[in-house]
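re: ur question from yesterday

yeah so i grabbed the chain u mentioned. its 325 aa long if i counted rite. heres the sequnce exactly as i have it in my notes:
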Amino acid sequence: MNVKRFVAPTLEDAAKDIRKQLGKDAVILHVKEVVTGGLFGFFGKKQVQVTAGIDGPSHRNSVSRDGDDKQSPLLKEANRHLQQLGVSNRVLKNLQLTAQMADKQGNARTKEELLMHTFRASLQLQPFVQKRQQTLIVAGPTGVGKTTTIAKLAAKAMFEENKTVSFITFDTYRIAAVEQLKTYAHILDCPIYTAYNESELIDLCGRQTADLVLVDTAGRNYLHEQMPVELVEYIRQSASCDLVVALSLAAKAEDARHMLSRFPKELVNGLILTKLDETASLGTLCELLYSEVIPVACVTTGQNVPEDICWPDKEQLLKWLTGGV
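ran it thru and got these structure tokens back, copy pasting raw so excuse formatting
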């Protein structure tokens, strides 16, 4: 087992260093407060010393059994909530160990506070960066809700941010999708263009002058397919063109992560998470935030355009995971 000791101002800061050096599968084994610096024991700075390692199955089981006998009522409540999230066993064990260490620090007075400490130390939450002029290529599996989400994004840009918007549809496989986007374009009084191949799409993207260009791509079975190479290279070379991937929160976490793996990670600027209203569990959201360093651009909560969409910040995502949806 590869075990290292980390010293940082907070458990959250230590967790970031642990992920960076040991990877996302590392687990926290021990936490204690230490005093660093100062002179003869005075004027020192309180910090957190965390021992972590890449855990083996036998060691993990012994840690879990030891912890079961010593759990505080607060930790038991938090662990029940973590189990109900519906995350994979690997993620659950890591979250429970982190909750155990956070509980030992004694800074949490309620289950929600303990869960907040746990998620802050475990999840990778990055802000989504919007540009004044931007082309968003929205990709994702069939039926995830890309077209309606694009209409919601357009309405927000026009009526709340006073931006000009244009649409490009690359989903010529489904006539209904083209007609649907044309209807939204007519209602919003936005220009709409149709691309029938990658070359036409790239050409159309390069000729747009609107503040926000929204590209609706065809739904693919990303469990078995990948993005066209020509389009990937265009996104890689373009300064204003960003790729956002739409995934359903109602899908299995394993499937969502596998679909995301079909896209070049360095090119994915954000996630559009759909169908929050169609799931009773936030396991997929938790798994994605645990495993990926990709910002959440927006979350959709229904079919109504433009109302059913929100732009959660870091604190809102944490509140959802603690039960405040």
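noticed a couple things. The radius of gyration is 23 Å. also The longest strand covers residues 26-36.
anyway ttyl
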